[in-house]
Design goal:
- The protein has twelve helices and eight strands.
- It has 303 residues and is of the alpha/beta class.
- Strands 1-8-7-6-5-4-3-2 form an eight-stranded parallel β-sheet, with helices on both faces.
- Strand 5, helix 6 and strand 6 form a beta-alpha-beta unit.
- The chain is globular and about 50 Å long.
- Pfam families: DHDPS.
- Belongs to the DapA family.
- This is Dihydrodipicolinate synthase family protein.
């Protein structure tokens, strides 16, 4: 039996990788109707890669049952219209169970959140991802890297053992470090996704990325798609025009250690009447003054 080549999955990573929000109902549960409507809006807007249970989806604030629900809702709503990259993480047995659930529901890939542990050894990082990747050899596996100390050679060693490790969501805010890491890992071997969204996409594309993640895409799919089209064509001036358009929105998300990363996106959606603004602790609602600014930005975008 030949091993999978993951061509479809690789192509899906070289794109706008949308991280959908998880809307909550008034009683605090996952608002399934709003969730489906928001997913439908992304798909109708031209998005073709979805990451349920990403950070913009409040992965760490969801229960195991809710994470499974979000996975199932996303796969059902997308059907054949998108490739699904499910976020998994926590301890190894939990991550493996989530990855197998994603596979059984019809997902094509899993994104492995950075190990949440105060003591991460380089070899231990590889062991963690190897255990997950070996449990689902049919799925493409995408490590989510936020650890600036990690060596590119460790990723190469992991992929030697696990050929289903096909892409990387790189989210260290240092374009030079990304360029070096990607080359140490073997640039052509993986699909490199700029994991810090639109603000970092132009610089990371110049160093070898071919996709980027986005939370902003929930609000204005056309804005994110305009940026990737410019980057694909080598039109960095055009990409930077989009960058200027989204700069303030992303500055509000990044302020205070990204405290309001999800909050700003949900506030924009709420201002457009698309879902409730509520987020779960440790995130928090915006003060009134910033709510008005976010609403003005969202209203000004061509959606």
């Amino acid at each position: 039996m030949s091993s999978p080549t993951f061509e479809t999955e690789r192509a899906a990573l070289a794109d706008v990788v949308a991280i959908p929000v998880t809307p909550f109902a008034e009683d605090g549960t996952v608002d399934q109707d709003s969730h489906r409507a928001l997913l439908g809006r992304l798909l109708e807007g031209g998005v073709r890669t979805l990451t349920p249970n990403g950070n913009t989806g409040e992965f760490y604030a969801l229960s195991p049952e809710e994470r499974r629900l979000v996975t199932e809702l996303t796969i059902e709503e997308a059907g054949e219209r998108a490739v699904i990259l499910v976020g998994v993480g926590h301890d190894v047995p939990t991550a493996v169970a989530s990855a197998r659930h994603a596979r059984d529901c019809g997902a094509q890939m899993v994104m492995v959140h950075q190990p949440v542990h105060p003591y991460v050894a380089q070899a231990g990082w590889a062991d963690y991802h190897r255990a997950i990747a070996e449990a689902v050899p049919e799925l493409g596996v995408v490590p989510y890297i936020r650890n600036a100390q990690l060596l590119g050679t460790r990723l190469a060693e992991l992929a030697d053992d696990c050929p289903n490790v096909i892409g990387v969501k790189y989210a260290v805010p240092d374009a030079a470090r990304f360029a070096a890491f990607a080359r140490d890992a073997e640039l052509e071997r993986f699909v490199w996704v700029a994991g810090l969204a639109e603000p970092y996409a132009p610089s990371y594309f110049s160093a070898g990325a071919t996709g980027f993640t986005s939370g902003l895409v929930n609000v204005a799919p056309s804005v994110s798609l305009n940026m990737i089209e410019a980057l694909r064509s080598g039109d960095y001036a055009g990409a930077m025009k989009v960058w200027e358009q989204i700069r303030r929105f992303e500055e509000l998300r990044a302020a205070n250690g990204s405290a309001n990363n999800v909050t700003v996106v949900k506030e924009a959606l709420a201002s457009l009447g698309l879902c409730r603004r509520e987020v779960r602790p440790p995130s928090h609602l915006l003060p009134e003054a910033e709510r008005a600014e976010v609403a003005a930005i969202a209203a000004g975008w061509s959606i």
